[in-house]
Amino acid sequence: MNSASEIWEAALGELQLQVNKPNYQTWFKGTRGLAFDGDQFLLGVPNAFVAEYLEKNQRSLIEKTLIGLTHRGVSARFQISWAQDGGSTRACEARRNVSALYGFNPKYTFDNFVVGAGNRMAHAAATSAAEQPSGQSYNPLFIYAAPGLGKTHLLQAIGQKALGNNLKPVYVSGEQFTNDFVAALRERRTDEFRAKYRSADMLMVDDIHFIAGKEATEESFFHTFNNLHNAGRQIVITSDRPPKSMPMLQERLRSRFEWGLTVDIQPPDFETRLAILQSKAEQAQTAVSPDVLDMMAHELKQNIRELEGSLNRIIAYARLLRAQITPELAARALKDVAGGKELPEARGNLEDVIGTVAGAFALSVDDLLGRKRDKEVAQARQVAMYVLRQKNGYSLCDIGTALGGRNSSTVSYACEKVAQDMANSHLLRRKVEDIQKKLTSGD
Ligand code: ADP
Ligand code: MG
User: Are 32 and 81 in contact (CB under 8 A)?
Assistant: First the structure.
């Protein structure tokens, strides 16, 4: 029998034909066959993210392919083995690229969607559309809700799931569809336009109400819809109101929308709001005490976007004031929102931060981004990572990329190290605080 690595090379050759290109590039490219004992096949993958993805979404395809090649009952196991510098940064960039390619926000997945009484039905329908596309479930699936209740999140979760199942989703907003159509008309590219939408394995249109009353766009959408529906392709649509309340919509389109399943999302109840806040705080890797979350869930009732925005604001406020997130501080941050006062913006983008840190250590930006490993440079680099991490909105992946392509675990380690060193060294603490002050007070 051939070695694990040879078998896996052959398997990759087949997988390349079976999954689409972005998928292959993202998930399979950096994998290796490590060991095969005639039963278990051990695959080396670059990081935990890829391991988890393959485990959840591609295991059966991988096993099927391996069984075909080895004629044995193979079970696949994944091991993180490719800890080459920059590997994980590349993987998270690749994931971002694939998502961006299709217009998805990588955060809008089913995993990150909290289910409660108000959205249970919509969530169930969305999962079913994602798992059994091609119209076996409800076609079209029409989801409507007031703004900020998770329509776009659910829709993109369906799309990203489809992507994981090697289907080609086409995702547009009603507005993009309209613009695309108008541009195609103007530039005489309607054939291309038609081909683009009709090649979809799954069509997702967000905020369809935008096209209501735009006759030619409606007409074009009507034909696209019929074509895909006849071909058994899943169509998912969102709107801010049900089809029957779209007065401008042509009757024939309205009736198409009502062919499948129409579900709504209701505002979340208290427990769901609390669960969402907990989940978002966790994602932001910030500890927020239960009484603060409780207070927020009581006060903010209507809209999940507002809930999330307020949480981000409280986190930013606390960082800016370098204060603990107490109920008092939270109340103050929220009061300012209500009073319309702008949060004093913490200045400095990635480059500013790196430049400022380099200056404080009397080094050049190139030193920080480069490969030098002597103590001084290494510490300055770690401080830059720490300072960036303290700012809201930069992920480990962003930071690693900005600092010359370091991987996320390097960044995570650096942040812990600096926090620890700051506790032990008065001098370092002062230095970091000076940098932070400089960045906050502006140029
Ligand atoms: P809509 O498209 O209905 O206006 P979005 O899908 O943009 O709303 O949701 C607004 C924000 O609230 C997004 O950041 C989204 O991730 C979040 N959100 C909405 N519903 C949920 C949920 N059930 N669980 C977690 N986050 C949610
Ligand atoms: Mg939306």
Answer: yes
